[in-house]
Amino acid sequence: MKNHFNLWMLSLVSVFLFFACKSSQGTTDHAVEAPNLYGTSWQVETMGPATGKSAPVMEGTVITVNFADKSIQGKASCNTYNGACEIKGTNMTVNTLGLTRKMCDEPRGGMNQESAFIEMMQGAQSFTLMEDGMLKINCSGERVMYLSKRSGD
Predict the structure, then answer these.
(1) How far apart are CA 103 and CA 80, in angstroms?
(2) What is the pLDDT of residues 30-42, one digit of tens each?
(3) CA distances (Å), 127 to each of 90, 113, 123, 144, 147, in order?
């Protein structure tokens, strides 16, 4: 009787271990290394709230982000910008950005878009490289930007 009980307990433990190990397949116990953004160039496609629909960059404008060693620079629609950027893992901190001071009348609303981009970039908090290759930058105020990698990188 005692042997049957021990055999039954051993079977139960074996089944438990089998399913416990089976359910963990496909998952990892370690964090995936964050991609190195330094030396890459991106183009902003959409900007907006984290929930809801982001707005595409206005037709006739280009917003770029070029990551160099602890700095970023690019075109913010009308003006160019540059500044310090620190990346640790998937966390990102952008210090105050320097910006040229051109005024652009076209397209209408372009300067507002530029101001929104600079504000969002200075509030960058983290990033995710999406499965489709897009770069998602999470900004303060529950806002996000989606960027595509520029050709040649």
Answers:
(1) 12
(2) 334 567 899 999 9
(3) 5, 21, 12, 9, 11
